[in-house]
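Okay, can you check this protein?
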Amino acid sequence: MGRKTYKAEEIIAHLREVEVRQSQGESIAAAVKAIGVTDQGSVRGTWP
C-alpha cells in the first residue's frame, strides 16, 4: 500500500489549523495530535 501524496493546499490547511490551536494556548504536540499526525510523522513530514 502506497503513501498518500498531499497537495500543497492540504498541507497548508493542516499547518494553519495547528497554528490556530497553538494561538489558543494548546501545545504544539497536542495540536499536531488533534489533526491526526503522529509524533514520528510530524518529524518526518507524514500527514494524517
Notes: The helical segments are 8-23, 28-34, 39-44. The radius of gyration is 11 Å. The mean pLDDT is 80.
